[in-house]
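This section describes the prediction task in plain terms. A model, or a person checking by hand, is given the sequence of a single protein chain and must write out its three-dimensional structure as a string of C-alpha cells. No templates, partner chains or ligands are provided. The sample shown here is typical of the held-out split.
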Amino acid sequence: MYIVIAIIAFGLLVAIHELGHFAAAKICGVRVNEFSVGMGPAIFKKQKGETLYALRVLPLGGYCAMEGEDGRSEDQRSISKKSIPARFFIFAAGPLMNYILGLLIVLILFSQFSAFGSNVVDHFADGFQASGETGLEAGDRITKIDGHRIYYSGDFSMYMDRAGGEPVDMVVIRDGSKIKLEGLLLEKKAYPNDDGTQSARYGVNFTSIPASFIETVKYGFYEAYNFVRMVLLGLSDLITGVVGIREMSGAVGIVGVISQVGASSPSAYAALLNISYIVAFLAVNLAVMNMLPIPALDGGHIFTMLVVWVLEKLLRLKIDPKIETYIHLAGLFILMALMALLVVNDVTKLLGG
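The expected answer:
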C-alpha cells in the first residue's frame, strides 16, 4: 500500500511542477499544445480549445508542451517570441510551485505542534561536562556552528552531526555579548531524557518556544528555507567528493524511502505525517535542483536565455534560437543518462548489491 502512496506522491510533485509552467504560460499568452499528467500511453485525452489534456498510465510526473520550445515556431504566441521577463516567469513558475507546496505542507504539519526547540541552551543532561569559560553555559544563544547559522535546536543537531565527532567552532550570545568558542568537542552518546528514557544526543537541552500562530508560521517558513540549505549542502558534498554517485538516489530510491518510512511508522496517522514531511522536503529539493543553471533544467533555460540576451546586446546580432535548443537537447540526453544510472543504482541497492 505504501509503495502505491509513494508513487502517487512522487508523481504529484512533478505534476505540480508542470502545472506551474502551464498556469504561467496561459497567463503570459503562450500557446500550450498539450498538458499531460503522468507518462507513457494515454488512458484519457480531451481536446479543449488549443490544448490537449491527457491522463497517462504511469503516475510519474507529466509535461507541459509549449509552442516554440524547439525554437522553430514563427507563431507569435510561441514562448520564443515572448519577452525576457515573461519567459523567466514561465520557467521559474514550476520550481516556485514546488517550493510553495513544500512550504504549505510544513505549515500544516507544524500547526499541530505545541512548542518548538529554540537555539537557547536551557540545561545539560546528566553526565554532560561543560568546560568553564571556554564551553557552553546555560542561557547561551547558539548562533553559528562552523560558520553555519543556527536558528532552532534542530540546526544544532544537524551541524554537530556534520562535524562527524570533530571539534567545532561556535558563536554564542552570552549576556548580550558575542563569544566565539573554538575547538569545542561535544560527544554524542546515550544521555538520559527527562522522561527517564535514553537517546543518542549531545546532552544539550534547549528552551522551548510556545507554538503561537506567528511562531508556527515563522518556523514553517524557516523549515522550508532550511530544506534549501540541506539540498545545497548535499550538492556541496557531491562536488567535493564527500559523497559519491553510489549514495545518490533516483525515482526508484525515493519511492523506496517513502514506502519504508510509511511501513516503519507506528500507526497510519504517524505514517501520514512522516510521509508528508518527506514529500515537503522532496518538493523543495525539486525546486532547488530545477533552478540550477544546467541545460534542460528550468535554471538552465533561464541561464542560457540571459546569456543569449547579453550576447545579442553586446554583439548586436541575432543568435539562432536553434543553438539554444541544441544545448538543452544535449543536456536532456545527459540528464536521461544520469537518471538511468540512478535507477540501476537504486535497483542494485534494493537487491543488496
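For orientation: The mean pLDDT is 85.
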